[in-house]
Amino acid sequence: MTKRKWLILAVVVVVAGLFVVFGFNRDTQAQHFTAKVERGDIHDVVEATGTINSVITVQVGSQVSGSIAKLNADFNSRVHKGDIVALIDPALFKGAMLQATADLKNSEANLQAARANLEKAKSALVQTKADYDRAVGLTKDGVMSKQQLDLAKSNYEAANASVDAAAANITQADAQISLKEAAVTVAQTNLDYTVIRSPIDGTVVARNVDVGQTVAASLQAPTIFTIAQDLTKMWVYAKTDESDVDNIKVGKTVTFKVDALPKQTFQGVVSQIRMNPTTVQSVVTYDTIIEFANPELKLFPGMTAYVTIPVATVQNALKVPNTALRYKPPMAPEEILALYKRFGIEGVQSDDHSAAGEGGASTSAGAQNLPRAPKAETAVVWKLHPDKTMEPVKVSLGITDHAFTEVSAVLKGELKESDDVIIRSVVPKGQTLGGLRR
User: Fold this and answer.
1) Which end of the chain is less crowded, N or C, counting CB atoms within 10 A of the terminal residue's CB?
2) Domain boundaries, the chain
3) Long-range contact list for 207-214, CB < 8 A, 24+ apart?
4) H-run or E-run covering 338
5) 122 Cβ neighbours under 8 A, 6+ residues apart
6) What is the side-by-side strand order in the sheet with 84-88?
7) What is the CATH number of domain 47-55+229-313?
8) In the prediction, which pLDDT does 1 show?
9) Which stretches of 142-220 are DSSP H helices?
10) Which class does domain 64-88+195-225 fall in?
11) Are 355 and 400 in contact (CB under 8 A)?
12) pLDDT digits over 384-408, tens only?
C-alpha cells in the first residue's frame, strides 16, 4: 500500500509538472495562423453596381394647360408612334379658334372695304383733275377768277392725298389679315395639342396623371407618360471606380445579376465608358454602359444590377492569400526594418505590405470614404518554417481576384507551392515575437 501511494503521488506530480510546463509555454509562446501558398488560376475582375435602363426613354408631356378628358394608355401599355394616348378638354381652345377665325374674316372684310375706298378715291381724283384742268383754261381766258382756280387746285390735291390714304389702308388691311391668320394658326396649333400622341413605338412605364386632373404648362411641360422605346434591348449604367477605368475595354463581355433573379446570370457587352465623372465624398466614378438583350422581358427598368467585368486571367500561377500580404508582425517599426535589412530586403517601409493585394484600400471605418490608393507592385510575406521560425520574403505582385494575388516573381528569399505563410499571429500581452530564422 505504501508503494502504491508513492506511485500515485509520483504520477500526480508528473502530470502537474507537464500541465505547468505546457500551460506556461502556451501562455508565453506566440501562436501563428498560416495559409498555404497555392498554384491555380486567378481571374481579375472589376465589380460594380449599376441600374438597368431602356436605351431610349421619352417623357410625353402637354404643351397646353387644361384638364385631362381621356386617357387611352396605362402602365405597361404597348403604343405605336402616332397613337392617341391622352386628350385634354378642348372646349376653351375651340372657342379661341372660333374667335380667331371670326377676327380673320373681319379683317378680310376690312380689306374689301379698303379696296372699294381706293376705287372711290381714284374716281374722285379723276373728277377733281378734270375740274382743275378746266379751271386753268378758263382762268387764262379771264372767265374764272384766280380764287376759283386755287379752289380747284386744292380739291385736286386733296383727292390725290385721298388716293394715297386709301392705298395705305389696303396695306394695313393686308397686314391685319396676316396677323389674324397667324392667330388662327396659333389657335389651331393649341387645339391640336389637346390631342397627345405617342412620339415612338414602345411601352408605357409610367403614368403621372388621372382623368379630370388639371395640368399646367405655363412654366414647363408637365409629364403625362414615360415611354420606353424597346425593352428587348436595354442598358446597364454601371458606376466604375476611376482606378478601374483603364482596365475596362469596349466590346468586353461581362456578366451581371439582379435581386429579382438571384440564381440567373445575364450577359452583356461594354459599349461605352462615358467621360463625365461623378464625385461623391472624394470618390470619383464613371458610367460604364453595358448593352444586353432582354427578349423575354425578365428585366425591368430601374432594377439594380451587380456587374462583374473580367479584366485579366492567369493560369497555373503561384498565388498567396491577400491576408498574408496584409500581415504585419507585432513588432516596433524599427525592429521590422532591421529584420528587412538582415535578410537583404531594401526599399520597403515597415507598413508598405499591409495594403498590398487590396489596392491600398483601408478597412477602418474612418477611411472608407477616402480615395483608393494605387495598387502596390511588391509586398513582403512572412514564411513559417517547420521549426516555427519566420522569414520575410519579398515578392513581386501580379493580378488579384481580391482573395488571392499572383506572385509574379520572388525578389528576395524563397517561396514555393505548399509553403506556409503567416496570416495572423497571437502574442501574449506585453511580449513581442521571437524565433526569427537567421
Assistant:
1) N
2) 30-42+317-426, 47-55+229-313, 64-88+195-225, 91-193
3) 207/71, 207/73, 207/74, 207/75, 209/68, 209/71, 209/86, 210/68, 210/71, 211/68, 211/69, 211/70, 211/71, 212/67, 212/68, 213/67, 213/68, 214/65, 214/66, 214/67, 214/68
4) helix 333-342
5) 163, 166
6) 195-197, 84-88, 66-71, 214-215
7) 2.40.30.170
8) 53
9) 146-193
10) mainly beta
11) no
12) 988 888 889 999 999 988 899 999 9
Class of domain 91-193: mainly alpha
The torsion region of residue 360 among left (phi > 0), alpha (psi -120 to 50) and beta comes to left
- The CA dihedral of 381, 390, 340, 394, to the nearest 10 degrees, is -30
The pLDDT of residue 370 is: 40
CA distance 267 to 254: 6
- Say how far apart CA 257 and CA 249 lie, in whole Å: 20
pTM above 0.70, yes or no: no
Q: Is the dihedral of CA 204, 209, 214, 215 positive or negative?
A: negative
* Residue 161 phi, psi dihedral angles, 5° rounding: -65, -35
| 349-386: pLDDT as tens digits | 655 544 444 433 333 333 333 444 456 689 999 999 88
Taking alpha carbons only, the member of 315, 283, 343 closest to residue 399 is 315
Distance, CA of 350 to CA of 220 (rounded, Å): 62
CA gap 203, 41 in Å, rounded: 45
Query: Hey, what's the cell of 317?
Result: 500561377
pLDDT in tens, 99-115: 999 999 999 999 999 99
236-254 pLDDT per residue, tens: 999 999 989 998 999 999 9
Distance, CA of 382 to CA of 331 (rounded, Å): 13
